[in-house]
């Protein structure tokens, strides 16, 4: 179950981060754009964590 939870959290962070990045770009707000990129990076990390959990049988 940990793998699925991590992957769902990752997807949410990637989507929300992309939305922030695009909105920041559209409104000429570099802080929001950077926040969006950071949130996407967090989502990528969660995705990797979920993949590792899946490979090791959720024992991580």
Automatic annotation (TrEMBL):
Residues 37-60 are annotated as: Disordered. Gene3D superfamilies: YjbJ (1.10.1470.10). Residues 6-56 form the CsbD-like domain. It holds the Pfam family CsbD. Belongs to the UPF0337 (CsbD) family. This is CsbD-like protein. It comes from Sphingomonas dokdonensis.
């Amino acid at each position: 179950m940990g793998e699925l939870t991590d992957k769902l959290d990752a997807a949410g962070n990637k989507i929300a981060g992309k939305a922030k990045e695009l909105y920041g770009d559209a409104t000429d707000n570099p802080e929001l754009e950077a926040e969006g990129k950071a949130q996407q990076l967090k989502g990528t990390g969660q995705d990797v964590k979920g993949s590792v959990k899946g490979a090791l049988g959720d024992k991580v």
